[in-house]
Design brief:
Layout lengths: L1 H10 L3 H18 L6 H13 L6 H8 L6
């Protein structure tokens, strides 16, 4: 039963929480100067750590990794 409660809370995560994950990811790859081929595994790991869930939505990983548009 606790896993089901955890899953529900992850599904209802706020935009703010996801934005925090995205900013943390960006800082992590910038500080480590991580090559792009390491971004997906890092983003996946970060989501697992932050949510406490083994399942990671691939769309969330894509959103976290997405680069900001150039102005």
């Amino acid at each position: 039963m606790p896993a089901m409660v955890k899953k529900q809370s992850n599904d209802n995560g706020s935009y703010f929480e996801f934005d925090v994950m995205r900013e943390a990811f960006r800082r992590w790859v910038d500080e480590d100067k991580a090559p792009e081929d390491q971004w997906r595994p890092r983003a996946t790991k970060l989501v697992r750590i932050m949510t406490g869930d083994d399942y990671v939505d691939p769309n969330m990983v894509e959103w976290i990794m997405r680069k900001k548009p150039q102005r």
